[in-house]
């Protein structure tokens, strides 16, 4: 691996080092995009197909299948409520990911990275195929669960993978995941808008898992230390100061040397269960504010956003909701790509601002004091900026401040924070939806 951060590096080799670094950054960007793409697309795609299947059944089943696709305006509520909150779909989507992220960090090191990526690719392809060819509701649900497993395993694996590369790869990964929301929603909507059926659209999107495969095995320049096809029973191998220079740039190396004077070789050995618990306890200063950010964020998105309806606006209810979601995704993309420009260590500030957003919109739904959807557009864009910034900065500082032998486990364990916040928000959205729609 090129020692791009070494002071004594041969100048002739620096262009090669920069090329490799940009190549790896691009690979992580594509991996982030592909990992979250199926999860984003599967929400809309599964609902479209469920709607078609359920149209042949009773009205109750039909309304359940149409969550987040159409809007039921035949009710007497002033909010033009859906019969079921959109949080119902979110619960089904997030639970497999949450369970996986809670338990996988304790044993996933036994599965080599190459096999993990192959499994994610297979599950991603299965999700598209199962939903596109489903003939029953349960078949589509299995497809959505497959997408959730692929996304959850991919996130904790690729975040752990960044420890084998320079720290700015966290920014590449985060930017790619932000791009998935925008690309997924626009591509699916665009292809169906021009007349393609949901089934054909999903089959076209089989190219996305293939792109993940190509990006990981052919674009990414993996270092020799990466356990590609061997079990990682030892979660940390000894790293000399010379080898560490290949993972850090000059400023990062100087910071390490100041914090660890005289440390030529870091002791090696697998982490014990008690050590892992100590690491998790140390992560709470990052994971708690990140969970709070995502709780507030998804309480807005799934509990309140569908109720922020302006009847006299030039967009219909479904169009307003769609633009809320799109602007939110744009905000996420911008802030997850901001690591090269700004770094925010105080995550509690971001969580506090996001909670203020949630409280503001909660009162806005209750008392209807916002004058126009334009103001909501600005708020949800700002909401996305806060959420994306919290995500990328949390994992950047976890990577930066964790000890060498703890870093891989810490990155995987911390990935549960956003899913936990999302799951709690989904559960909290049910009584909120029920209360407002009963008014």
Automatic annotation (TrEMBL):
| Bilayer-crossing regions | 27-46, 137-158, 170-188, 200-222, 347-369, 375-397, 409-430
PANTHER family for the chain: BATTENIN
> Matching InterPro entries, A to Z?
Battenin_disease_Cln3, Battenin_disease_Cln3_subgr, MFS_trans_sf
* Any GO CC annotation of this UniProt entry: lysosomal membrane
| Descriptive protein name | Battenin
Domain of life here? Eukaryota
What keywords is this UniProt entry annotated with? Lysosome, Membrane, Transmembrane, Transmembrane helix, Transport
What membrane topology is given? Multi-pass membrane protein
- SUPFAM superfamilies attached to this UniProt entry: MFS general substrate transporter
Tell me one GO biological process term: negative regulation of neuron apoptotic process
Q: Which family does it belong to?
A: Belongs to the battenin family.
Localization? Endomembrane system; Lysosome membrane
């Amino acid at each position: 691996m090129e020692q791009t951060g070494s002071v004594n590096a041969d100048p002739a080799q620096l262009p090669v080092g920069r090329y490799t670094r940009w190549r790896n950054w691009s690979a992580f960007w594509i991996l982030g995009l592909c990992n979250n793409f199926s999860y984003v697309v599967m929400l809309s795609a599964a609902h479209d197909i469920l709607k078609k299947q359920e149209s042949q059944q009773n009205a109750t089943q039909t309304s359940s299948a149409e969550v987040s696709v159409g809007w039921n305006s035949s009710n007497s509520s002033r909010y033009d409520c859906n019969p079921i909150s959109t949080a119902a779909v979110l619960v089904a989507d997030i639970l497999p990911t949450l369970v996986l992220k809670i338990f996988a960090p304790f044993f996933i090191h036994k599965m080599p990275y190459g096999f993990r990526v192959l499994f994610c690719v297979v599950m991603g392809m299965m999700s598209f195929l199962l939903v596109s060819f489903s003939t029953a509701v349960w078949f589509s649900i299995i497809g959505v669960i497959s997408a959730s497993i692929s996304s959850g395993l991919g996130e904790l694996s690729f975040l752990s993978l960044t420890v084998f590369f320079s720290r700015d790869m966290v920014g590449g990964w985060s930017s790619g995941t932000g791009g998935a929301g925008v690309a997924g929603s626009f591509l699916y909507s665009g292809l169906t808008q021009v007349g393609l059926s949901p089934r054909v659209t999903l089959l076209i999107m089989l190219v996305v898992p293939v792109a993940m495969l190509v990006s990981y095995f052919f674009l990414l320049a993996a270092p020799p230390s990466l356990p590609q096809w061997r079990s990682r029973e030892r979660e940390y191998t000894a790293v000399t100061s010379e080898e560490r220079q290949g993972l850090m740039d000059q400023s990062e190396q100087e910071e390490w040397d100041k914090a660890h004077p005289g440390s030529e070789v870091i002791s090696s050995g697998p982490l014990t269960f008690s050590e892992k618990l100590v690491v998790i306890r140390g992560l709470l200063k990052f994971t708690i504010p990140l969970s709070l950010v995502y709780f507030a964020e998804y309480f807005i998105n799934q509990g309140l956003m569908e109720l922020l309806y302006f009847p006299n606006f030039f967009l219909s209810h479904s169009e307003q909701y769609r633009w809320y979601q799109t602007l939110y995704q744009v905000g996420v993309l911008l802030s997850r790509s901001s690591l090269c420009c700004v770094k925010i260590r105080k995550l509690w500030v971001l969580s506090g601002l996001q909670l203020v957003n949630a409280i503001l919109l909660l009162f806005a739904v209750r008392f209807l004091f916002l004058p126009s959807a334009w103001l909501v557009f600005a708020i949800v864009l700002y909401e996305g900026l806060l959420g994306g910034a919290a995500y990328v900065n949390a994992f950047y500082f976890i990577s930066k401040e964790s000890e060498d032998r703890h870093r891989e486990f810490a990155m995987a364990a911390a990935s549960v924070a956003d899913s936990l916040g999302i799951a709690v928000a989904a559960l909290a959205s049910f009584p909120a939806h029920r209360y407002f729609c009963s008014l």
